[in-house]
Amino acid sequence: MTIMTSPETITPRRSFLRDNPSVLWFMGLLGLFTLIVTLLSEGMGMGVISTNLVKILGMTLCLCLIAIAMDVVWGYCGILSLGHFAFFGLGGYAIGMWLMYARTEIVIRDSLGRGAIPPTEREVSEGVASQIFGVVGSSELPLIWSFAGSLPAQLALVVLVPGVLALVFGWLAFRSRVTGVYLSILTQAMTLALSLYLFQNDTGLRGNNGLSGLQNIPGALEVPQAVISVWFFWASALALGLGYLLFAWVVSGKFGSVIRAIRDNEARVRFLGYNVEGYKLFVFTLTAVVAGIAGALYYPQAGIINPAEIAPIASIYLAVWVAIGGRGRLYGAVIGAAFVSLLSSWLTGGGAPNVDLGLFRIVWTDWWLVLLGLGFVAVTLFFPKGIGGLFDYLVRKQP
Amino acid sequence: MKACLMLRRLCAFALIWQLILSPVMAQDESDTPLQDVLQTVQSEVANPSRGTVPAVLQALMAADAPGTVDFLRTWSDREVYERPADGLFFYATAEGSSLTLIDIDTGAEVATVTSRDVSQIRPNAGVRREIGASLVAFELTHPDADRRMAALASAARSPDPDQLPAIRAARAEEEDSAIAARMDRLIALLVARYDQDSTTRVEAIGALRGDVSTPARSVLNQLLATRADFAETLPEDVNIARIKTPGEDISLSAAYAVLVGADLAPAAPGRNAIRDALRANVVDGQVGGVPVHQLDNDADRIAAYQALEDAGIVPPLVTEADVADAVSQYVFFDAYLEPDAAVTTAAEAARSSTSLRVSGYQFLSLSLDALSLASIFFLAAIGLAITFGVMRVINMAHGEFIMMGAYTGYVVQTIIPNYTASLAVALPLAFAVTFLAGVVMERLVIRHLYTRPLETLLATFGISIALQQLAKNIFGTQARPVTAPDWLAGAIQINDLVSVAAVRVGIFVMAALFLLLLLYILNRTRLGLEVRAVTQNPGMAASMGINPDRINMLTFGLGSGIAGVAGVAIGLVAQVTSEMGANYIVQSFMTVVVGGVGSVFGTLAGAALIGSLQKGIEWFNPANTLAAQTFMVLFIILFIQFRPKGIVALKGRAAGD
Predict the structure, then answer these.
(1) B134, B300, B504, B593: most buried by Cβ count inside 10 Å?
(2) Which residues contact residue B363 at a Cβ distance below 8 angstroms, ignoring those fewer than 6 apart?
(3) How many C-beta atoms lie closer than 10 Å to residue A32's C-beta?
(4) CB neighbourhood size of B586 (10 A)
(5) Percentage helix, strand, coil, to 5, in chain B?
(6) A183 near B CB under 8 A
(7) Under the phi-then-psi rule, with left for phi > 0, alpha for psi from -120 to 50, and beta for the rest, what region is B431?
(8) B190: nearest Cα among B167, B170, B171
(9) CA within 13 Å, CB half, B474
(10) Which residues on neighbouring strands pair with residue A305, listed in sequence order?
(11) Which of A112, A181, A188 to mutate to test the interface with B (most CBs of B within 10 A)?
């Protein structure tokens, strides 16, 4: 085969990894962190890190994953979505339905099986329904639980529900050219509608009780939580790694240039002949799917999901993390999410010592949000690049 | 109807006024203490009988001492006590076995005695009826029109055929046309319900046509009450309301259950009964020849059950054919409790003609609710209409300004106990506080972000989070009330179906005032002119000698200040919590966006649309306000798809694009 004079051969294409050294750095650090946590964990190693802390760290990795999704949609594409935590919650609900149904089914089959004659399928499903929905005064299995018994179906829903919702909503919003703050408010309204919907008892997701007992994994009920927590930590780390790789690849190259251009001047990109709506819709939907996957990994570690998790304020916090970590760079989002959420759980969990100022005593559980709010204002005003901006000083010397 | 009632109320007021002014009328109650009057008929009061009661009543009515009515009521309720030692009468409150005697005239506590020291007076049923009738008669002929009105209302609440003569007598002497009309209605009610003669009743029912008052409608409903029944053939002597065809008006299984209940058919064993029967008859791992492990489906279970049935161990299965067969032998119907067919036909006709008016009034009531909700939304959003609509600043802390206003109202009330005075102080104070907060926020944060709208949104989010937590730290998580003064506490009753809380009317008036004020400021003052100039073209405005920084600051302060005043008003109807602002913020933005950014009238239209929409959806599903909110937000999202610029879209240079 002769060498053709295609553009690729004229300018030798640099490899993706060489263009993005931060990906290798990130992968290495994530791998190292996973190894350390595993070796120190209660379930698999020396037991220095408690099971609870392993869970918190695993959950933090999931939050980092949704934060990079948020960073791509906001920091790179300029869509300040206040609905991504709703997609996160939907992913959690989709997996939570299977976890709850399958575990209850085991319990019900066990108790019905003790009778003189074996139960019929109908008796089992009625028993499961009254067990799950007794708390909202119902004993019928709602239609949306039709596939709750099947793990593959619910795993598909983890991807499909947020994906389809984002696709439909995004299509409606982008085609009518809703942009900027209007889009933010619209996504916030969507989140509000969803959380209000889930708060109702008769919508089939147990109202404000939410889904609970998600930490018990059917099929692994005998395995101690200490071990399960490490499994989920691994899964979260793997998802974060793959997500980082995926998004780093998406935002590099020509596609990345186009979406950054959309962020900076949407009209000009449109005049250049690009299908701006298509690009935006793709980014919005892809990040929503990743958010759903992150939620599906997060809630089995949290153990419970309820509509309050989906309330608009959660999506706002997501934006806060990304802004503090630094928009427009993936590692910035990871740093922001990890830093703020860990600091938040440390301060509000009562772990931090209260500061006595003589006249006034700072109780962190009371003052943390005040501090966060004001800190966020300060970051927006004075450090628009966030914590990630500090790295610019390190690499500035290079050409 | 409404105007007529208003007129009546005016008449009543005029009458009361006359009573107060006229010295002759004011002396209608004599000064003789009731105890003295009672002593003149001591033995008849102490030992009442049907024969003696009229004389006692006559004596009491003639003297008309203060408290006579209360005494009669208490007497009839068997709560008057006689002290045998001196023959005086007392009221009493019981505590265990001891009684505290209360003076009839002064209401003072006289002594504490055991129940043996006094004798309770127990009028029998006949006496009590007599007292009741004369009480009605006494009250209905009382010179005070208010008393007569109250007596009529209470008689209408508990209609009793014995009252009829008294009301008729009073009607003959009544001069006030409003009260006379009410009496006529009450008479019609009683006749329709209790008269012996069928034609008289039908006439009386005709008079109730279109009467939407609760007593009138409840009389019609009582006349039309039905009971469900069945028989082999349709009985002749029963006033049938309707015949129910099994399978259409009544389900087969329900009809069958009725037969089972009457022991006319064997009970059908359900799935649970079959299961229990099978469980009870397991023999050698088999039931009726079917191995136990196969019994995990309904078909095999029924087969096993039939085997048991053939052996005669269990009651037979009832098939669907059996059910249909059993049901087809009977007629199922609803029968009126009222035997007279002419009466029920007339009542049906009257009810259906009333129901149209009832739904008309219900619609009116719903519209008033929607209007009230719309005015709350408008109040919450109007500040935003300035900061977001005119200045295009996304202030996510707007809700927290509303909260600050509401807490200002609460704090002022804890300092000034008089609610009217505290409200008068709180409104301007709330404006001042939030005006100041807005100005500070504008100077410190928003000014630096005018070119970066998305970041304004974020920074104000930060402020909102901080303010919310700050309020929680200061006031706690418990909800605090802002209490309305007495003159705003009641409800304005138009008729039995339509009433509006006075405080909601107040809020509506306030919203209207703010609308006018804002329109005036924006369109008729120097400040408004400069505001519009700065928003349209800051550079050009500056070159005309306007200081854009100052104008932006003042405008933002104005919008925030209005949010604070709105907060006081909202605090009157909602609980004041640190999260109350967050509850309004999304809806407020929706109101402004739906209405059309940049237009005060747009905000008004948006609030009206959202308010009536929410009430409308709530009407379809009254139990679930959450569902109403969900659907409303969905509707708004769709609405913005089709009218991205809102209801009132600005055109030309003012649109800003």
Answers:
(1) B593
(2) none
(3) 10
(4) 22
(5) 65, 10, 25
(6) no
(7) alpha
(8) B167
(9) 16
(10) A211
(11) A181
Whether the CB-CB separation of B115 and B97 falls below 8 Å is answered with: yes
Q: Indicate whether B1 pLDDT > 60.
A: no
The fraction of chain B above a pLDDT of 90, given in percent, is 12
Contact B458 A369 (CB under 8 A): no
Q: Token match 């009780």: residue?
A: A209
CA dist., res. B589 & res. B388, Å (int): 8
**Mean pLDDT confidence for B230-257:** 83
Q: Which of the four pLDDT bands, split at 50, 70 and 90, describes residue B634?
A: confident
DSSP secondary structure letters along A287-350: HHHHHHHHHHHHHHHH-EE-GGGGSHHHHHHHHHHHHHH-TT-HHHHHHHHHHHHHHHHHHHTT
Reply yes or no on whether the pLDDT at A8 is more than 60.
no
Report chain A residues whose CB lies below 8 A from the CB of B394.
Answer: 181, 184-185
Number of Cβ within a 10 Å radius of residue A250 = 17
The secondary structure element, H or E, covering residue B110 is strand B109-114
For residue B285, pLDDT beyond 50: yes
**Strand, helix or coil at B338?**
coil
Q: Is B2 exposed, middle or buried (0-12, 13-18, 19+ CB in 10 A)?
A: exposed
Cβ contact, residue pair B640, A190, below 8 Å:
no
Express each pLDDT in B314-343 by its tens digit.
888 887 888 888 888 888 888 888 888 888
CA-to-CA distance for B629 and B587, rounded, in angstroms?
10
Chain B contact present for A319, CB below 8 A: yes
Structure tokens at A377: 């204002």
Neighbours of B516 (CB within 10 A): 10
Q: Does A316 touch chain B (CB under 8 A)?
A: yes
Distance of CA A353 to the CA centre of its chain: 30
Of A158, A157, A189, A204, residue with least CA distance to A62 = A158
Which residues in chain A have their CB less than 8 angstroms from residue B586's CB? 185, 188-189, 192, 312
Within a 13 Å sphere around the CA of B185, how many CA atoms are in the beta-carbon half? 23
Cα(B299)–Cα(B320) distance, integer angstroms: 16
Determine the distance in angstroms separating the CA of B353 from the nearest CA of chain A, rounded to an integer.
37
User: Contact B463/A189, CB-based, under 8 Å?
Assistant: no
What are the residue ranges spanned by the domains of chain A?
25-395
pLDDT band at B427 (very low <50, low <70, confident <90, very high): very high
pLDDT class of A296 with cuts at 50, 70, 90: very high
pLDDT at B5: 47
Query: To 5 degrees, how large is the angle CA B325–CA B327–CA B328?
Result: 65
Tokens representing B466 are: 């901080």
Reported as a single tens digit per residue, the pLDDT across B547-576 is 988 998 999 999 999 999 999 988 988 889
Q: Of B446, B400, B577, nearest to A370 (Cα)?
A: B400
Higher-pLDDT residue of A157 and B390 is A157
Hey, which residues does B335 pair with through a beta bridge? B227, B240
Give me the percent of chain B exceeding a pLDDT of 70: 93
| B478, HSE (Cβ side, Cα atoms, 13 Å) | 4
**Chain A residues touching B455 at Cβ < 8 A:** 380, 384
Q: Shortest CA distance to B386 belongs to which of B242, B263, B559, B171?
A: B559
Residue A376 and residue B459: Cβ atoms within 8 Å? yes
Nearest CA to A213 out of A126, A271, A132 is that of A132
User: Residues B381-417: pLDDT tens digits?
Assistant: 888 888 887 777 888 899 999 999 999 999 999 999 8
Measure in Å the smallest separation between the Cα of B160 and chain A Cα atoms: 42
- Closest to B25 measured CA to CA, from B13, B33, B15: B15
Paired tokens of B455: 């970041």
| pTM assigned to the model | 0.77
Confidence of residue A11 (pLDDT cuts 50, 70, 90): low
